[in-house]
Amino acid sequence: MKPSIPKGTRDFTPQEMAKRNYIFNTIKDVFRLYGFSQIETPALENLSSLMGKYGEEGDKLLFKILNSGDYLSGLSDDELLTRNSGKLTAKISEKGLRYDLTVPFARFVVQNRDKISFPFKRYQIQPVWRADRPQKGRYREFYQCDVDVVGSDSLLNELELIQIVDEVYRRLKINVCLKLNNRKILSGIAEIIGEADKITDITVAVDKLDKIGLEKVNEEIAGKGISPEAIAKLQPILKLSGTNAEKLSVLKNVLALSEAGMKGISELETIFNLCETMKIQTKIEFDITLARGLNYYTGAIFEVKAMDVEIGSITGGGRYDNLTGVFGMEGVSGVGISFGADRIYDVLNQLNLYPETSEEQTQILFVSFGERELAYCLPWAKTLREKGVNVEVYPEPAKIKKQMSYADNKNIPFVAIVGESEMDAGKVMLKNMKSGEQSAADMDEVVSRLGLYPL
Fold first, then answer.
1. pTM of the model
2. Which of the chain's termini has less CB crowding within 10 Å, N or C?
């Protein structure tokens, strides 16, 4: 049978991993600048920790794992014959693969509350899994790079997350737009149009406005039993235009009687003012249609779009005031964002924005023609590695053409050729693979040509 991998998953070659690590390292460096510390949680979580946290649509996308051993032994024939997948799943599967890093983080905070200091600032870079339909920019296994603060209500945290977005994408040289909204504004809208209990149905539909258009959104909302009068009241809000300040000004009139809505507007105004004070370079746009389909957001919500590539959001997140409450720890507010590493990877590939050289790349290959030459190379390699140079020694005597092809295939910029005359002179023949130039060099000259300084 021909070997294969599941749809929606990918292998990564060494060259691809070097590119991915460039993304991870860039993001990590910025996270650390703002005082965030790294944690990890298991790939598996108890299904009881995951179910019900992502809404009905999210629950369907959870990968469930069959119990070990004879997982059908506890089921009666009648139960099996009902073919009720929901009830059967609950009995044959106790664990699932994590869907995101936020819910496991909330569980971690509750479990470790006695060991951590609040506000707790963490980042986490790990894979997550979703039983989604694979398509361009959407995978079943993908990495998230999350950064969250819990235990603080301050909007300075929202500002820091925006600063992190600004700095990460400046370093990656990706031109982005940060879209911003507030769930309190969406709640206020649902309240004003007389459908407060349908907030989830409205936000899930509104979130699709960019993808399916106004007509289809209205059809979806109507299908949820929302009255034609309420839908009519919703239209001017869905068609908001102008500057951020102009949009908020219109909403202030519309939501004047909604306490939640007015609080959401006030929070956004504070965030916009802080961003102006800090001279954020990234374009920030208030987008009333941004709803982020997840149920746990309660305040500011963020989404980042790449401007020069057709792809879904590459970063998203928001404020959640009650997520830890589901694990028995009330009153802990948090805010966080998640960088979609796989989509960022695709964007960088399309725009060819990677640096020319990678930290992981071999910088010099020692080519040799026999056992004596090989023994001569090893101390040189050791000395260079002590100076922080990535060095390879071709492990066996082979024709020069084969060894040079190896260097070419791995994009190794320098080759040190060792033969009788080089050993007698205590040097190597150093070849620049890009220019083709070569000359005899002692250790100091090799260090100089590689752009290093002697230790």
1. 0.85
2. N
